[in-house]
Amino acid sequence: MSLADKKNKEPSLAFGGQAVMEGVMMRSKDNLVICVRQPNQEIVTKTEKLRSLSQKYKILKIPFIRGILALFETLYSGVKGIYFSANATFGDENEEVSLSPKEIAITVVFSFFLSVLIFSVTPFFLTGLLNLGQGVVFSITEGIIRIGFLLGYLAVVSMLKDFKRILQYHGAEHASINAYEAGVELNVENVRTFSRFHPRCGTSFLLIVSVVSILFFSIISSPDYLTRLSYRIILIPAISSVSYELLRISDRYKKSIIVRALVAPGIFLQRFTTRQPDDGMIEVAIKALKEVETMQLTNE
Question: What are the TM regions of this chain, as residue ranges (predicted)?
Answer without folding.
Answer: 104-126, 132-156, 205-223, 229-247
